[in-house]
Design brief:
alpha+beta, 317 residues, OB fold (Dihydrolipoamide Acetyltransferase, E2P), 5 strands, elongated
Length: 317
């Protein structure tokens, strides 16, 4: 039962990390998604795999299968449900194939590392039986456990800040969603691409890269209707002009126009969407962000409560 709970919990964390990394990288730098998520998944697998193997005698490869099959399918399913536009936006070429390649390399490195560790342990055990290697001291194992705990504490703080910030942003954006009846359906129109222009936008990347590159160049693909309605639409093609040109060459697209009479403005959505489905999609998106953030905050608070109670019991003894 504990083994199944460990695998299922890891699969849920894997799916949540996949979606969270995409939301963090969207609009900033997709390299955080392509490289950051595989590295985080591998790091969790190494730490959790060792812990579950010692405490629960769980086979690490069962954990790997659970994360990649259950967690992977759930994560991609949630991503497609929250962002259905990806299916018609070169998703396979731009995201799925590169991420799969990076994951393959990362998991290959992890697999080779595990095999090397396994062979080393077998060698050490064989030498130990011959009396050539002294038995490991209990203090060494305790020191490694203490290092793992310290690492967990260090990693948990940035995640706590990220969860709190995501909760705030999700609640703010959820409150700004317009009701469906504030839109007027102007019907489906055909938009034809007519230009590609480079635009300088704010670079939301963090760290040294964000400080040294406060802005970035993206290529916008511009569309307009040809039926005399005068509607226009623009979409960010990519930071690479070749990808923007691929989108341009895809030709006309159909989109539904939703006008906002009180502001004398309009937005465009997918042709099969309505005002109700559009607002419902936004609500699901921000609800998911808030749910994941609150889940981590609850886990973090619960972990500290357990630690506090454990300390109290030790002091009472």
């Amino acid at each position: 039962m504990k083994k199944a709970a460990a695998v299922l919990g890891s699969a849920v964390l894997y799916a949540g990390a996949l979606l969270a990394s995409f939301l963090i990288a969207a609009g900033n730098d997709m390299r955080w998604f392509l490289y950051g998520f595989p590295a985080a998944a591998a790091a969790y697998f190494v730490l959790a795999g060792n812990l579950f193997s010692r405490r629960l005698q769980l086979n690490c490869w069962h954990l790997w299968l659970g994360m990649n099959l259950l967690g992977g399918l759930a994560g991609w399913g949630l991503l497609m449900a929250c962002f259905p536009v990806l299916l018609s936006n070169g998703f396979i070429l731009v995201f799925l194939v590169p991420l799969t390649m990076v994951l393959a390399v990362v998991w290959a490195v992890v697999g080779v590392g595990f095999l090397c560790v396994k062979l080393f342990r077998r060698r050490s055990a064989a030498l130990k039986e011959k009396g050539k290697v002294p038995a490991a001291r209990p203090e060494r194992a305790a020191a490694w456990m203490e290092k793992a705990k310290n690492l967990g504490r260090v990693v948990s703080i940035p995640l706590l800040i990220l969860a709190a910030a995501s909760l705030y942003v999700g609640a703010r954006d959820y409150g700004s969603i317009r009701p469906a009846d504030s839109y007027v359906d102007e019907g489906v129109h055909t938009f034809v691409p007519y230009d590609i222009l480079p635009v300088s936008v704010k670079n939301n990347a963090t760290g040294r890269y964000g400080r040294t590159h406060p802005t970035k160049i993206v290529y916008m693909v511009y569309y307009k209707t040809t039926d005399g309605s005068g509607y226009r639409w623009q979409v960010e093609g990519s930071t690479a002009r070749t990808l923007a040109e691929q989108k341009y060459e895809e030709g006309p697209v159909e989109r539904r126009v939703l006008s906002i009479p009180e502001e004398d403005a309009y937005i465009t959505v997918e042709a099969d969407q309505t005002a109700e489905s559009y607002t419902a999609g936004l609500q699901r998106k921000y609800t998911l962000i808030m749910g994941l953030s609150m889940a981590y905050l609850a886990v973090y608070a619960g972990a500290w409560i357990v630690i506090w109670r454990k300390r109290e019991m030790e002091q009472a003894e």
